[in-house]
Recover the amino acids of this structure.
């Protein structure tokens, strides 16, 4: 926490009208580190009175912020991205960036490993960047008139004050995915972050203020969730509620918004099927399912919740998958990366092989750099013989392997190309490339209640005949750590099938036919993300169209991006976030008829 404090980013009071304020009755609540139980800070515990003032402030600012040109709003947003992500010298001996500090804060209060946290800062900033650009593309329409002396126009205007309620699993990105488009459109916002992760939200808001987002355009209140939510819902000034969280709370917010007829966007729970067909590439399927299941220790609403495996490949897939899950390391998210904080570009990080994802010789196929699906660092090692001087980052100093570490997906491609060139120069045949994923690291679950839920689901499954193939109990580290778990022979009468486990438990469900897989996949009220692994193009189309889901990943386990629409069908929610469609929820359409021309 000292690093965060030194950077001036430890904020514990709410943000109302540009002022950092305590709860009016002085109440505070603790924010804890789920990995250690340490109390990180005491933050203001606010309620309806503070929320009412935040709404008033947002409402007043709406009249000025919405009158700025799109270009002016875009510039302020772009400055915010800069402060969130760019490296800024802080002390003469150390390069620190707000990116590192925000990631550190996330790891401390949420538990996700630093690598994933750094990935989330990029992901969070990508929404601001995307919507800063979209701000300039809010086009209206001119409609051919039905009478000669009329002109019919369509204007798109910001909806007004937005109440944004966000969860703890993505403490930054779930905020920027809402605040980015809202501010870009000209709306002002009152954010209520999760009580478990307010520090990241407050730090990001601080940087927004520093970036010149005007006082009152972005307010943050936290504390008593039903009171804050109640105030947001009953206010006639709040014109929209946007929420990411549980289906139960989403339903409450939808009902509560009825009285004032607010526009509502909901990103609710999922129950993602991940279908592995007999004709899948087994390495791709293992890698994709692992990433889809174990990201953030299984605590995302798009995490694979049910892995449906066709009979013919079941045994083979199960044993490869168990092996991959076995190599996941459980621990405090800070452990892997203290060196990464000081030096973000390099560092020796243990990663698990999630491949070999690719085997080829570079002569036959120089385009082998297909490490898609990784949000974070990827290490590529090749079994090639290279002179000693070339084996740069091999920890054992062995000349038989070369390992390259890069941070971003494009860098992976660069890395691959560079390695291919290297092999060519050295006249070495490239035998095998192994792609590594940073999802090797599993942090704690958010709290004790989350572990109890996982235990209940696993207990229910075993009592009904499922078999534990790996894990299946609390981790010896204690706190809220749970062993990465694989459960075999899960069926549709078990909680693991019916509900979202939100933890590191992968249920394997055997099936016979494509029809049965589609039926099982759709046999739920949820409809957020679904995944499938198959080599058949025809089947990809057929099944994608048959799945009742808002997002479908084909041969890919990580599909979220700021440029594509994210959202669910059925009880997984309303509206879409990200992409050009993500602007619509913050805009009203106004028809103007000019007559007697
Ligand atoms: P999760 O199970 O992912 O924590 P929740 O739906 O409980 O999901 O929480 C998501 C967000 O909704 C958090 O910011 C939480 O404080 C907030 N929340 C919970 N209950 C209410 C409520 N009654 N009204 C408004 N917000 C709520």
């Amino acid at each position: 926490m000292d690093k965060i404090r030194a950077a001036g980013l430890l904020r514990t009071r709410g943000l109302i009208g540009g002022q950092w304020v305590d709860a009016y009755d002085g109440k505070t609540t603790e924010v804890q580190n789920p990995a250690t139980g340490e109390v990180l800070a005491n933050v203001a515990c606010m309620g309806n009175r503070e929320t009412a003032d935040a709404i008033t402030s947002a409402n007043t600012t709406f009249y000025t912020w919405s009158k700025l040109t799109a270009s002016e709003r875009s510039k302020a947003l772009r400055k915010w991205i800069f402060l969130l992500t760019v490296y800024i010298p802080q002390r003469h001996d150390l390069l620190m960036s707000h990116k590192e500090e925000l990631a550190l804060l996330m790891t401390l209060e949420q538990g996700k490993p630093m690598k994933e946290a750094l990935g989330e800062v990029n992901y969070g900033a990508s929404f601001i960047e995307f919507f800063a650009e979209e701000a300039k593309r809010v086009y209206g329409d001119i409609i051919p008139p039905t009478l000669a002396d009329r002109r019919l126009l369509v204007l798109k205007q910001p909806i007004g004050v937005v109440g944004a309620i966000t969860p703890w699993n993505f403490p930054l990105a779930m905020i920027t995915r809402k605040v980015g488009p809202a501010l870009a459109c000209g709306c002002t916002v009152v954010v209520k972050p999760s009580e478990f992760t307010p520090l990241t939200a407050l730090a990001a808001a601080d940087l927004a203020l520093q970036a010149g987002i005007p006082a009152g355009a972005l307010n943050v209140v936290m504390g008593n969730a039903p009171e804050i939510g109640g105030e947001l819902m009953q206010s006639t000034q709040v014109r929209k509620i946007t929420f990411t969280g549980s289906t139960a709370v989403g339903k409450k917010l939808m009902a509560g918004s009825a009285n004032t007829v607010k526009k509502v966007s909901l990103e609710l729970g999922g129950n993602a099927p991940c279908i592995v067909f007999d004709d899948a590439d087994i390495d791709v399927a293992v890698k994709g399912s692992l990433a889809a299941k174990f990201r953030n220790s299984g605590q995302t609403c798009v995490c694979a919740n049910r892995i449906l495996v066709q009979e013919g490949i079941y045994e083979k897939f199960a044993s490869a998958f168990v092996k991959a899950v076995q190599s996941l390391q459980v621990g405090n998210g800070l452990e892997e990366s203290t060196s990464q904080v000081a030096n973000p570009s390099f560092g020796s990080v243990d990663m698990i092989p999630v491949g070999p994802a690719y085997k080829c010789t570079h002569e036959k196929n120089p385009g082998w750099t297909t490490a898609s699906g990784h949000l974070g660092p990827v290490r590529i090692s090749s079994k090639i013989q290279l002179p000693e001087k070339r084996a740069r980052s091999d920890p054992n100093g062995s000349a038989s392997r070369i390992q390259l570490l890069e941070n971003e997906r494009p860098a992976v491609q660069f890395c691959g190309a560079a390695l291919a060139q290297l092999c060519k120069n050295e006249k070495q045949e490239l035998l095998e490339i192994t792609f590594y994923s940073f999802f090797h690291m599993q942090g704690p679950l958010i709290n004790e209640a989350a572990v109890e839920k996982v235990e209940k689901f696993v207990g229910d499954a075993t009592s009904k005949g499922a078999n534990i193939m790996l894990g299946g109990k609390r981790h010896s580290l204690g706190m809220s750590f749970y062993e990465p778990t694989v459960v075999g022979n899960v069926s549709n009468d078990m909680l693991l099938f019916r509900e979202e486990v939100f933890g590191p438990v992968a249920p394997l469900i055997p099936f016979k036919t494509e029809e049965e897989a589609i039926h099982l996949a759709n046999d739920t009220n949820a409809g957020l993300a679904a995944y499938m692994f198959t080599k058949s193009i025809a089947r990809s189309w057929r099944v994608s169209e048959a799945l009742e889901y808002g997002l479908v990943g084909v041969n890919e386990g990580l599909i979220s991006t700021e440029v594509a629409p994210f959202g669910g069908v059925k009880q997984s929610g309303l509206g879409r976030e990200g992409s050009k469609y993500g602007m619509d929820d913050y805009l009203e359409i106004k028809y103007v008829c000019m007559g007697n021309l």
Observations:
- The mean pLDDT is 84.
- Residues 165-168, 192, 194-195, 225-226, 229, 245-246, 249, 252 surround adenosine-5'-diphosphate (CB under 6 Å).
